[in-house]
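Notes to self after the Tuesday call (sharing in case useful).
The group wants a holo model before anyone commits to mutagenesis around the pocket. I volunteered. Ligand is calcium ion. Logging inputs and output together so the record is complete.
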Amino acid sequence: MRLLLVEDDIELATGLRADLVKAGFAVDTCDNGIDAEHLGDTEPYDAVVLDLGLPAKPGIDVLRAWRQRDNRVPVIVLTARDAWYERVDGFREGADDYLGKPFHIEELIARIRALIHRRHGQAVNSINAGGLHLDEDLQQVRLADGEMRELTGTEFRMLRYMMLNAGRILSKSTLSEHVYDQDSDRDSNLIEVYVRRLREKIGASMILTKRGQGYVFVDGSSRS
Ligand code: CA
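Result:
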C-alpha cells in the first residue's frame, strides 16, 4: 500500500514518514498544495494524509479539485485541534476521515488501515483471503493450517496488496507502484523475485501466473 503524506511541517513529516514506513507502507511526501494536487492525480496512491494548512494551495482546495475531477483516492485530513469547522469543510469536500492535531501515530495508522480495508471490502480489523490471515501489527501471515510465517518488509507490503485485491489480475507494474515509493528503484524483475519468495512461504498454488498479464492471488471462491 502506497501513501501520499502532505505536510509542510518538515520535522513532523519526517517523523510520520518513518513511522508509516515501519508500519509497512510505501510513503511519498510532499510539502505544498500544488505538488500534492499533481501527485494525487498522477500516482496511484492507496490513501492520502492531507494537512489542511499548506503553502501554495490550501489542503481543502486540493481535495476539492481532486473530487471535482472524480479522483476518489481515500483521504484523511489533518485538522487543527478542536476546529470543528475544518472537519465539516473536510467532509463537505469529500474527505473520508479526519484526525485533529496533535495525534498519536497509532491512531493515524489505525485510521489508514481501516480506510484501506473498507475500500477493499475487508473487515476493518484484519485481512483475510484465500484461507490466509495477515497480521498487520506483527507483519506475519497465518496459513490455513495455523502455522505462522515471518515476512520481510517488502514481502509484507506485496502480500497485503495481493490479499486486498484477491482474485484480480495484478500486473508487475501495478504491484511495484503500490509496493514501492516514488524514489525506489522499481525493477520489475524484483517483483518476480518477491513472488517466488512469497510462494515459498505461503504455498505455490496461492499465487497464479497469468502469462503476459501478471499475477493473481487465489481467493477462496476462485479455487475449485
Ligand atoms: Ca501545515
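Two things stood out.
Helices lie at 10-22, 33-42, 59-68, 84-92, 105-119, 153-164, 172-179, 188-202.
DSSP finds eight helices and twelve strands in the chain.
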